[in-house]
Amino acid sequence: MSEHLPALQVVLPLVSAALCLVLRRAFVVRVFATAVAWACFAIALALLARVEAGGPISYALGGWAPPLGIEYRVDSLNAYVLVIVTAIAAAVFPFPLRGREVRIPRSRHFLFYASLLLALTGLLGIAITGDLFNVFVFLEISSLAAYTLVSLGRDRRALSAAFSYLVMGSLGAGFILIGIGLAYQMTGTLNMADLAVRLDPVRDTRTVWMAFAFLIVGTGIKLAVFPLHQWLPNAYTYAPSLVAGFLSATATKVAFYFLARLVFTVFGVAFAFESMGLGAVLLPASVAALFVGSIAAAYQTDLKRLLAYSSIAQIGYMTLGLALLEERALTGSLLHLFNHALIKGGLFLAAGCVVFRLRSSALADMRGLARRMPLTAMAIVVGGLGLVGVPGTAGFVSKWYLVGGALEGGHLLVAFLLLASSLVAAIYVWKVVEVMIARDGPEPEVRCEAPASMWVPTWALIGASLYFGLQPQWSIGIASQAARSLLAGAP
Amino acid sequence: MPTDPNIALAVGLPLAGALAIASTGRWPNLRETLMLVTALATFGVVLGFLDPVLAGERPGFTLFEVFPGIPLAFQIEPLGMLYALVASGLWIPTALYSIGYCREHGEKHQTRFYACFAVAIFAALGIAFSRNLLTLFFFYEILTFSTYPLVTHSGSDAARRAGRTYLGILLSTSVGFLLLAILITWQLTNTVEFQPGGILAGRADGPVAMGLLALYVFGAGKAALMPFHRWLPAAMVAPTPVSALLHAVAVVKAGVFTILKVVVYIFGIDFLAETGASVWLRYVAAFTLLAASIIALSKDNLKARLAYSTVSQLAYIVLGAALATGAGVIGGGMHIAMHAMGKITLFFCAGAILVAAHKTKVSELDGIGRAMPFTMGAFALGSMSIIGLPPMGGAWSKTLLVLGAAEGHDVIFVGVLMLSSLLSLGYLAPIVGRAFLFPQPHPAAHPGESATPEPSGSRLREAPLLCVVPLCATAIGCVVLFFSAEAIYDLLRAIHPGP
Questions:
Q1: Residue B465 structural domain
Q2: Which of A230, B53, B104, B389 has a Cα at 20 to 30 A from A342?
Q3: Could you tell me the residue ranges of all domains in chain A?
Q4: pTM given for the model
Q5: What is the ipTM of this complex?
């Protein structure tokens, strides 16, 4: 049984998505989806424990040996990403779906959960598979599910947001497919480890250059790396909070994982950074993202939109750590995958609590929120401090490594800009805080905290971000191990 | 290094006190009793470390590891001992005073006020006992955030604006400069531990050390070195007990303490003296010292005048650190205690005047000494200590600083220190003079106030007893410090054993 865990990790949510159509009753489906998410989380933890104990796992799907068959390959990096995705799912899925956030009636909620499970399937599949074409398949599964989920937002603008997400996402997927095709044409293989070997003699051909460019840009769109981020703000703003929380905490993280996999495992550091000059493109783009995202966030008047722009800046931190090509910085990036997932997931859920009570996430409606919804407001403050990177929060841990890595590489200016950008983050966070503690809120000021079914998942994520800010040994251990193995070029 | 769990107790007590205060908000008497008990107990525990530290022990306590090899950990050394004694010791009179002040002044949200206060003391003790830069930075930021609700306590627009300045400057300097400096130190030396003699010697050359020192001293924005001093006058919108303890003792001293500690235990005095990396800092400190004094002269608002006086006096301590001589650093360290005792007295008096006479401007204080003899008498004593006149504690620390300047053959700074003492005489003495020597304004001179005729100018109208007793106590404390300066000197001498 336990040797089939890699397959189970993907098959379980896939089958469960179909089962949702049978169960149909909203409450039952919600409990079922939650249970599946928890089971997936348990599987991911078991996989991580096995990888930690015995090194990478290779699993031949259907018994067909790689490189011809599809290989599921789990090393410390995938296992870590799988844990992030499933942990977020486990925390987010129980968050109740209220009619104020989705457009479909309660009788059709089962379709929502089916899509949610499909998105989970796709994301887990991308993270676990060792086969490039399989990545594309799972990418499409997760993306199509994501477009559907975004379009279900109550606001009519969710439809156009989902449509532009669809156009941009399909463009990205198309690029990735072209890249895969070109690489396949040159090597005749789709297995990533095998590709790494077979690409070696043909690296200096224009076809491989094109393959690399298409793959990186396509992934960049999925990752919403500046300036390919236009789809993100609207998608997250108008999606139901649960969806925004889930996608912001997982979809971009998995895309980042795929980028790292391409750069370090498939094409190799030397090719990507020396021949193709990835660093020269990604470093300025990342630094620009830090400021563009944060400054744009500071101008927003809607909490969800503000959080969406903040995500663009936070993605900049991750790509920056990759572009610096230092072990410490890459550790920081990988730490930030996890830390940002906790923080941003928690913040979007907190926004969900706000929408549930106030029917709006506009900052203007949130005046005096600290007295009306103290728990939710507190969650937003603590999560916001995490985005700024105040010591004691998870954000500080990743920033410590990122800045340390920048200094290690001698990039004093980048180190300073990194810290300066967190001050811009402080501006938008404090803007929200000041609104929430304002004294001129609507009268009467009655306490109307969100129900426990909402603030418990919110605080589970926010509390975890505090815990991993003070006790980060676990995340640091895995992230630094994964960073080391990535930089060593081990497939 | 002996492990002593009492350190965790000393730091944890104020935090526990904050929780106790927050949960007993419904019963004000119980809440305030708890606050006093916590303050007394904290001071008692801190005092217990004094003998071991004087005997040369350096008790430590490790909380838990955050980054590999970098724990949150405490270790008590002389400077931290002194700062902890000052912060926890002065919490007791401030607690008494704030009870009197808040009740008389009818402050709202007193529970939040007292709770944040206790958290700030918790952070100050954490800073004092920090064993490495990470711990120091951690508590430094807690101090910033826990004092924000105190600064914006009144909730008015002006308070919110001031709070924005306060947080903006303190956060941007600490994150932009201090954290960067810490990470550069980590990068250079692979450690962030405070060690006697410093850790940078041999790992950084002159220019790097100079740049790093700049990041540290401007990063410790709480030290209010120009041009990052604006937050301190802005923070004066806070209720007076906050200004007293936090902006004369805990917060500002956290800044200069950070600078002293970094100079002594990260750079090392000898390393700084050899490389001359701190020469420029002497001039910046001297400029701040004089400029702030001159601005103080021009301020009519009493608290604003005291705020600029604080900026100036903090620069003394920075100058002491920048001199990179034993006497300079010890004088700077001693000035932490001396200035704290003097300035808290002055702020207490300013608050008492506000509560009893509802006056905030220096120009309104004519003849007030007759109505408030105790308050203004204490003000006179505190002023003398700030100016540096015997028999007040301030005399010793200023003497040491001048000696330190002379030791380094920096005659110009001897002159600066003298001049600044004269300037402080210039901005403090007139207040005392007005209060005791000027005649009271005739009621007719203020037509607006004639509706409430004052029966007699010589009638005592002091602030409540809970305000007057603490301010008299700290004024007497200034005198006591004059006679016990040797004990402080003995404590601090260990940080730079030498001539």
A1: 280-305+319-445+456-499
A2: A230
A3: 2-487
A4: 0.90
A5: 0.87
